[in-house]
Amino acid sequence: MMASTRRIGSPDAKNRTVLLDAAEQLMLEEGYAAVSSRNVARKAGLKYQLVYYYFRTMDELFLAVFQRRAEEGLKRQQTLLEAENPLRALWQFDLDAASSGALTMEFVALSNHRKVIREALVEYSRRFRETEIEIVRTVLRRYRIDPEVWPPEVVAFVMAGVSRTMALEGALGMTTAHDETLSFVREHLARLGDPPAETVVDE
Fold it and tell me: Which residues does UniProt assign to DNA binding (predicted)?
């Protein structure tokens, strides 16, 4: 079967961005089930035919909404090593990402019904995790902390897991032990202080 040659609008077009914004707002306000071509167009103040001018299918629209935010997160994550205290910056990044996770939760629910979204979630989660592990590995090396005692993979997983659990529980109105956990992490990050600059040793 020949691939479709139907013209698709430019990915940089203003109307495409407006449609993405509208779809995202609908997901946050009413849930993914409310996202239809007509509802998105109505929210955007555009004709519904434009949805299919910029996106061949609704899957493409959902995927574009997800990828836009995921790429923004990856770009921000990749700058954390430039922070004065990368470990503290990573912890704050995890907290911020988790606390704004309503959209992510909608995509998780949607992934149960759309394979392309599930595959994208897995791929971007893997990329986030790998970058996080490398950040932790680099920072622990600067502190001269033995990776056998504090494996970077485990530290990264725990930091992300704790922040997501707190965000999920907070969304439900359950905050028992949250303040104590935040204080504990802040105190121990403060004890570490800022890491020494990484030095290069000539061989």
Answer: 36-55
* 153 conformational bin, left if phi > 0, alpha if psi -120 to 50, beta if neither: alpha
CB 62 within 8 A of CB 23: yes
Any domain includes 2: no
Label residue 7 by pLDDT band (50, 70, 90): low
**Which position has the token pair 């994208």?**
120
Tens digit of each residue's pLDDT (9 = 90 or more) over 170-201: 878 899 999 999 999 999 888 887 777 655 44
Q: Length of the chain in residues, anyone?
A: 203
> Which tens digits make up the pLDDT trace of 24-70?
999 999 999 999 999 999 999 999 999 999 999 999 999 999 999 99
Indicate whether 152 and 106 sit together in one domain: yes
**Ramachandran area for residue 31 (φ above 0: left; ψ -120 to 50: alpha; else beta):** left
Per-residue pLDDT of 110-133, as tens digits, reads 999 999 999 999 999 999 999 999
Structural domain containing residue 29: 9-55
Residue 40, number of CB atoms within 10 A of its CB: 27
Six-digit token string for 149: 């005692």
For residue 55, count CB atoms less than 10 angstroms from its CB and return exposed for 0-12, middle for 13-18, buried for 19 or more.
buried
- Kindly state whether residues 39 and 124 are assigned to the same domain: no
Q: For residue 13, give both structure tokens.
A: 């077009």
CA distances from 45 to 4, 21, 48, 91, 145 (A): 28, 12, 9, 39, 56
